[in-house]
Specification:
The chain is an alpha/beta fold. The protein is built from 17 helices and 32 strands. Bound molecules: oxalic acid and manganese (II) ion. The site of oxalic acid has 7 residues, from helix 7.
């Protein structure tokens, strides 16, 4: 029986229509709905989601246009063990990815998807990654049976007619199929077919697994396409920093999931920095391509932020709080009796009573956290008071600096600058961080996360490093590369650096280095700020002694650090560019 068509195709693109027909024949939905991204459609979907119990309407006086979703407790984070790169050969996927042949994966998933939408509605979600009219933007079409995904995609991407208008009759679009099935980890696969520009995700409704534009297209498939087409798809925030004299410097920053990219991208300079301004282009993903001006240009492919709620407050990130004050979908946070949202770290005092993320009554005596550690907000970027006016610029913004950073309690100094591009690639390639709740598995374990792309590189990581090195000859005016660590602790286990808005001090040094205004000293790891050139004015409880501690290089720790790179280097041995081995040798000799 043919599915009822709830709406007509809003494209004449025959490749899209043919593919939708094929998927409908496989999944056998009761109804097919083509999404156009209109306000009317949003209202209808929201009403339907509330009626189906998928969304709860929040207190509209406090949070206009905001809704709440509670996921299944088994579906609260990305599942790296269920994420596959399906290239023709295992070698193309490389040693850091799970691999299955495209044929085997298609066969397996065809089994799961057959009849998977019986009794359900199939939504066709066209979406554009990147500003309309940008040569860097790409189109995806996600077919999904999750209304939560549809409404979230509407926030996170430029969803609807704009995507089909951008595509026209071109056949070059990403085909993404998402079936919730019964949301069972045993039947959960996030499968990428880079050579077909296709994604099939089943058994999860979690953002990073199910909003296919984000990690799946913008990073895994994106990185594969970038290598082929001579650009970079990276897990990076993009921000602009403007000095009191009006000099604007754009930087990107790669930090692993849950390490503060959203906070950093929305930073408000402390009062001492009168006249300095930070604006957000993106908080999670950067697509970067050499421009005709010889510089590397970046766009944010997304249109919204899928941020971690716990720890976000008026103190730590007022811009994020403003961004999620309306038209936001909250997932797995806690609810107050008057249907406001709460999470650990939101306010100094804890409410006396809440409904926790599992739907249970919660009091401050409860043993578990009220909000899940990876509870999220999906909020439109246009709500961000610090949104850069260039965020919609089809040409992107010219990048002067790339910052790599991880969460490390020891070893890594607050900031240093790589000597040059090749050294910078080595610094990014050997990045480490403690794991966070953004992925299922143990939290707090140090792991190598090259360029914060370990879970997101859609091909062989050794080839990815080669691509980074090769890009050097395509970018006449190369960005400078830096490494930061906001998370170093002292002997008593206290963070050495206050972080948040104070990160402006590091950012200022970086911007001034790019413009040739700030001094640096040569240290074994790279260029480091001289105490005179690092702005400590007006800081409470932080002085030159503390800076020296935050910047200290402990030779013993670094010996262990270099030795522990063996794991990654051996894993990638066959494809590791020799430049990285030489850089390691040079580091050892400097140490
Ligand atoms: C994210 C992640 O959601 O990195 O951005 O997990
Ligand atoms: Mn991320």
């Amino acid at each position: 029986m043919d599915a009822k068509t709830g709406s007509k195709p809003n494209t004449t693109n025959s490749a899209v229509i043919r593919w939708v027909k094929d998927v409908a024949a496989l999944c056998q939905p009761d109804e097919i709905v083509w999404c156009n991204g209109s306000e009317k459609e949003k209202k209808l979907f929201t009403e339907q989601a509330i009626a189906a119990g998928v969304l709860i309407e929040l207190n509209q006086k406090k949070l206009p246009g905001c809704y709440y979703h509670r996921s299944k407790p088994n579906d609260v984070a990305r599942t790296e063990q269920a994420t596959f790169i399906c290239t023709e050969t295992a070698h193309e996927a490389g040693a850091t990815n799970n691999w299955m042949s495209p044929r085997e994966m298609h066969n397996k998933l065809r089994g799961f998807c057959t009849g998977a939408m019986r009794g359900r509605t199939m939504y066709i979600v066209p979406y554009l990654m990147g500003p309309a009219g940008s040569p860097m933007s790409k189109v995806g079409v996600e077919i999904t049976d999750s209304i939560y995904v549809v409404l979230s995609m509407r926030i996170m991407t430029r969803m609807g007619q704009v995507a089909f208008d951008h595509l026209g009759n071109n056949e070059d679009f990403n085909r993404g199929l998402h079936c919730m099935l019964d949301v069972d980890p045993e039947r959960r696969y996030i499968a990428h077919f880079p050579q077909e520009n296709a994604i099939i995700s089943v058994g999860s409704n979690y953002g990073g697994n199910a909003l296919l534009g984000k990690k799946c297209l913008a990073l895994r498939i994106g990185s594969y396409l970038a290598q082929r087409e001579c650009w970079l798809a990276e897990h990076m925030l993009i921000l602009g920093v403007e000095s009191p004299t009006g000099e604007k410097t754009f930087v990107t920053g790669a930090f692993p999931s849950g390490c503060g990219k959203t906070n950093f991208s929305m930073l408000i300079p402390p009062p001492h920095f009168a006249g300095w301004k930070v604006t957000t282009v993106g908080d999670d993903i950067a697509w970067m391509k050499p421009g005709s001006d010889g510089r590397l240009h970046a766009i944010n492919p997304e249109a919204g932020y899928f941020g971690v709620a716990p720890g976000t407050s008026e103190q730590t990130n007022p811009n994020a709080m403003a961004t999620m004050s309306c038209d936001t979908i909250y997932t797995n946070v806690a609810l107050t009796p008057d249907l406001d949202v709460w999470w650990e770290g939101k306010t100094e005092s804890t409410p006396k009573e809440l409904i926790d993320w599992k739907g249970q009554r919660w009091t401050p005596d409860s043993k578990e956290k009220a909000a899940h550690a990876n509870s999220r907000f999906a909020a439109p970027m246009k709500n961000n008071p610090a949104l850069a006016r260039e965020a919609d610029d089809p040409q992107g913004v010219p990048i002067s600096a790339i910052i790599f950073g991880g969460r490390r309690a020891t070893t890594m100094p607050l900031v240093y600058q790589a000597f040059n591009w090749i050294h910078g690639v080595y610094v990014g390639a050997t990045m480490t961080s403690e794991t966070t709740a953004a992925a299922t598995g143990a939290v707090g374990q140090v792991r190598r996360d090259p360029m914060a792309m370990l879970p997101f590189c859609g091909y062989n990581m050794g080839h990815y490093f080669q691509h980074w090195l090769r890009m050097r000859s395509h970018i006449p005016i190369l960005p400078r590369i830096f490494h930061v660590n906001w998370f170093r602790k002292d002997e008593s286990g206290k963070y050495l650096w206050p972080g948040y808005g104070e990160n402006m001090r590091v950012l200022k040094w970086i911007a001034e280095r790019c413009r040739g205004h700030a001094q640096a000293w040569e240290a074994p790891l790279g260029w480091v700020p001289s105490a005179d050139d690092f702005d400590l004015d007006g800081m409470k409880n932080f002085d030159r002694t503390r800076l020296a501690k935050a910047q200290a290089i402990d030779t013993e720790e670094w010996r262990r650090e270099v030795l522990s790179q063996d794991g990654l280097f051996l894993k990638l041995y066959a494809d590791l560019p020799k430049e990285l081995t030489f850089q390691r040798e040079l580091l050892v000799s400097r140490l």
